[in-house]
Amino acid sequence: MMKKLVLILSAFLCLTTLNAHPRRTINLNVRYVKVKPMPVVVKVKPACPSPKHIWIDGDWVWNSKMNQYVYIEGKWVVPAYGAIWVPGHWKHANKGWYWVNGHWK
What we know:
Elements: H1 2-20, E1 54-56, E2 59-63, E3 68-72, E4 75-77, E5 85-86, E6 89-93, E7 96-100, E8 103-104
Antiparallel strand pairs: 1-4, 2-3, 5-8, 6-7
């Protein structure tokens, strides 16, 4: 019974510790394009919901149905304590341009 309790407690602590750290999104399916998309028209940010929120600029995501990157607009988020947002950006490689997702650091 004690082993079971220790195992459950250990699993709980591992899960809560993992959730406490900022997550990083890694683009495993890199999609190359010959020409990076045009910059998006800058839009007015909606009002900030609270002093705790920070603005995350939009990101480019691959749309397999359209076979191209599409822009997803930015949003206000409440970051995890101590987390810093690293904006997404375009990178050039031998195969062409690809998008590096924004992520928490």
